[in-house]
Fold this protein.
Amino acid sequence: MPLLTTQSAKSFGFDQLILSSLSSGYYSIASGIVDSSGSTSVVFSTIPQTFKHLQLRISARSDYNYTVDDAYLQVNGDTGSNYGTHNFYGASPQNSSININQFNNTNSFNWGQAGGIGTNAVGQWGLAVIDILDYTSTSKKKSFRSTSGMSTNTTATGGLGGRNGNSTGVWNSTAAINQITILSASPRTFNQYSIFSLYGIA
Amino acid sequence: MGVTYTSNQAKTYEVIQTYTSSGSTSTFDFTTIPSTYTDLILVYNGTFVGGNNGGIRLRFNNDSNSNYDYLRVYGTQSDTKGSDNNFSNTFIDIAYMIAGSVETFQCHINSYASTTNKKTVVSHFASPDNDGTMQQAGTWQGTAAINRITLSSDYNHVSGSMATLYGIKKA
């Protein structure tokens, strides 16, 4: 089984990846761990086109002074108004109902609003799993699905409870995805030890 | 500003342990979990022998103190929907069970081997027979690496009910 190199950089490409035919299964591709200086983004570039689907698994926290924080996703470096997001989430105890939101024609997929990014204020880590289906298709607009959450009993701005929910997103392009950028909510940064891992499903 | 990137294309998502009920057990206890993975996924599919309104309780490292918090969103066949939370509980209530109905859940536990972070859990529960579904975010306030996961319930699981623990290793 092939593989590659390890490097410290702002982003990682797969130019040196030696691809072979893959048997069915779930594969690690790459991961990024935020260092002590923090980071506003994590970039996976030159993503191999040999898998059927991708999955991102995230354990992250930001320097926000609030209960939870937003976070975003862009693909192929597209910063245009080409993304849409729908989500629902619970945010007890401020609201015992379910919050529902929709964002159209935005410049990123907002997967973090439904939970998934912890903060310094509560000292806990959010968890998110994001699926990107049929990412190599050149005939379909690309769909994202995120499940995420973080629960806390620590008092912080925003109150107790954290958030917990699901998001779906679309990128209104039929291009194959070869780069994924995960962004913190400006001007915040992801904390040290935040882990972003990319997997492929063959 | 920095991120340390690593790549390693390797097959992962391995079974760590599976329990299959013979019909006389109410607890699935995953002990001596290796710390060699990045994330854990716990999957349950089964049915209770008897009793209604039972639950499945999730605990880590045999900690029965008030170190668990959780926040849930849910919907049921009666069009009841909403969210609630429970702080400083002695377990995470991962599923509700009704006798004879099929229940299933999947539970993500990321960065479980960290010795500095409190542990976050996100789970999905569905009961097709009861037409109910729930998503939950939970926290175990412990910072020790998770080496034991215990699922205990009020009633025995019918024969063939199964819980499997998987490990996923990052690049």
Summary: Residues 26-201 of chain A form a domain with the Jelly Rolls fold (CATH 2.60.120). The radius of gyration of chain A is 17 Å. Chain A has one domain: 26-201. Chain A touches chain B through 78 residues (CB under 8 Å).
